[in-house]
Design brief:
2 copies of one chain form a homodimer. Helix content of chain A is 36%, strand content 27%. The first copy, chain A, is an alpha/beta fold. The first copy, chain A, has a domain at 3-174: Acetylglutamate kinase-like (Carbamate kinase), CATH 3.40.1160.10. Chain A starts with a strand and ends in a 7-residue tail after the last helix.
């Protein structure tokens, strides 16, 4: 008998029929003798409907009231799922975030969980109940309703699993696991049976939408065994997200992430002296523009070139900021390019394997793809290339590193 | 400066536009220097939508989960109304029933209010906030969400007004006050500027849908000044519901209530001995059939006739029950009639005025309307007549008692 926390996203509970399917899945786990806590999102479309209603009244909705409003979405789902479970003859009981109680800070619309009072849930489980908890929401110390921000239901699931010391936290979604890369671009992409937390973090931050990054961090911190599965398939083991220590044989490369969301800016002829990076990026940060990759080459002739990437939507804004900065620091020229793509190899194995970067660069060179920027971390190598080469780069790397073959 | 509790029903907050109108009305009261607590229902149609969703999943929805579900309706409204108030530059803050906290018993779907913790509301009012409270809902001592049953938002409004010792509780609805009778039947029907609680109780229980009866009882018990107004008119004083002592000159008759909802059953030739009424009505109560009027004539020849009325929907069921009873008590015959109407004169003044009943009966006789049953209370006289005469009876009585003229 295991204690399992299962999280079902908005698509998985998007209709009465799907809610009944979720109830059936939970019933199968109960029949096997497991204890189940189900964490659910709002029915798909509901959160957007509520936000649209709010904006009709207040174009910039008050954050406290917005949380009161949108938290009703999950509250509807917990009641309906509990009813579906009872209709199948199971004992079930629902809890809102406030009822659990999931205590958060008071940062409305993007609150962080501080603690979870798991006593009621544990007592219910011991009495044979399936416990159904509203994801995405909590309550601050003054009793105000808070929400964790988009994707926060994943975080609720992981946090509950940590508090209850659950044997596994299962995240049900509309994909059946984590792939080596997007199967729409590389048909040979292979589903991974396991992936490490660190790799998952890199993949999540690089735009793989399977799991919300905060929930992965949370799972890593509290050593929660996390599994990604499809709610639309009866069978399947999904992808288990493991701690590195668990993995005897580490694959060198686990996956390839990519996106076209960024734009590149370069300040040419920057005087090469201490503090210059801060001088350039300070005004960018002041303008609330997030920076991703940052590259500075060694200088020559007392000047250097400084490049960084921002989200494509903020390209023009960033260019404007740099024009002001240019005069202040006496740089020669500002150039920018918003037709770039970022492609990244991710894998814990590359720590101990030399030559991965070299093989990556050679593979791209063989396809005549010019590399514009390079950035590396312990378990990731990212390159910026012209955006039209993105799919070609991903396919070539997938084949070169034999990701279609089980490791 | 007064403290006013305003209750807005589902129709009054049925759309974004109407919610904005409510905000404007509240703003006018604030501009006059009043403190305002707004109690709101779910947007019209929302509660029924949620119940339908529940029944798709569980034909007899679990009461606890049903309350979790339907309580989201008012939660949506409080957030939207607070936003609308802020958008007009007012300070506003919303509270669910649990947040207030409105403590109830644990009779899910029909809970009763036990106490209200008004401290937070009072502090907010003193800081210049409009406080927006979800009607219809509360929380039991274990933190379970409860609802007060249909129409419960009126009760929330009155209970809050009592707890806060408000100067007035205003019930906004789609009619502009309480009338001497239904204007659709008697065009000369006149809006009353005042009516006593006792009269209102009789009118409410007789089918006037203006106020929920429990809220009127509550207001009477805690001496809350209650006023019924239209949310669709900018002006108008509505109808003030007063304590009898407040009224210097009591009108003899305040209004005429009527309905076609009942059916009449008569047990003929009942042995005239103690306990016989209980013997007849016991099985009726056991079958969960509510009884309204009960009439027993004096006996002769050792037998008597026993009549009572039930809701028309339960006529057949009641007839079946009586067939069994008939044999047990040795009655002669059971007869029934579901084509009846009840017409009632209501007025605190009739206590001290002889001759009201006589005038009523003569008025009906002049119209050739036969009276089938009569029942009286201190402030009410009800008669049962053939249902086709109902409108005629109401019009004749309205004219005879000169209800179209201000008293």
């Amino acid at each position: 008998m295991a204690l399992i926390v299962q999280k079902y996203g908005g698509t998985s509970v998007g209709s009465v029929e799907r809610i009944k399917n979720v109830a059936q899945r939970i019933a199968r786990f109960r029949a096997q003798g497991h204890q189940v806590v189900a964490v659910v999102s709002a029915m798909s479309g509901e959160t957007n409907r509520l936000i649209a209603l709010a904006k009709e009244i207040q174009p910039q909705p008050d954050p406290r009231e917005l949380d009161v409003l949108v938290s009703t979405g999950e509250q509807v789902t917990i009641a309906l799922l509990s009813m579906a479970l009872m209709e199948m003859g199971l004992k079930a009981r629902s809890y809102t975030g406030a009822q659990v109680r999931i205590l958060t800070d008071n940062a409305f619309t993007k609150a962080r969980i501080l603690s979870i009072d798991e006593d009621k849930i544990r007592a219910d489980l011991d009495s044979g109940y399936v416990v159904v908890v509203a994801g995405f929401q909590g309550v601050d110390e003054h009793g105000n309703i808070t929400t964790l921000g988009r994707g926060g239901s994943d975080t609720t699931g992981v946090a509950l699993a940590a508090a209850l010391k659950a044997d596994e936290c299962q995240i049900y979604t509309d994909v059946d696991g984590v792939y080596t890369t997007d199967p729409r671009i590389v048909p040979e992409a292979r589903k991974l049976t396991t992936i490490t937390f660190e790799e998952m973090l890199e993949l999540a931050s690089l735009g793989s939408k399977v799991l919300q990054i905060r929930s992965v961090e949370f799972a890593g911190k509290y050593k929660v065994k996390l599994r990604v599965l499809s709610s639309f398939e009866e069978e399947g083991e999904g992808t288990l997200i493991t701690f590195e220590e668990d993995t005897m044989e580490k694959p060198i490369i686990s996956g390839i992430a990519f996106n076209r969301d960024e734009a590149k800016l370069t300040v040419l002829g920057v005087p090469d002296r201490p503090g210059i990076a801060a001088h350039i990026l300070g005004p960018i940060a002041d303008a609330n523009i997030d920076v991703d990759m940052i590259v500075q080459n060694v200088g020559h002739d007392g000047t250097t070139d400084f490049s960084f990437t921002v989200h494509r939507n903020e390209f023009t804004k960033a260019l404007d900021v740099l024009q002001t900065v240019k005069a202040e620091i006496g740089a020669r020229e500002i150039i920018g390019d918003n037709r770039i793509a970022k492609v990244s190899l991710v894998g814990v194995g590359m720590r101990n394997h030399a030559g991965i970067a070299g093989k990556m660069f050679k593979t791209l060179a063989d396809e005549n793809i010019n590399i514009q920027m390079i950035s590396t971390s312990e378990i990731k190598i990212s390159v910026v290339v012209e955006d039209k080469y993105m799919e070609l780069a991903v396919r070539a790397l997938h084949q070169a590193f034999e990701l279609d073959k089980a490791n």
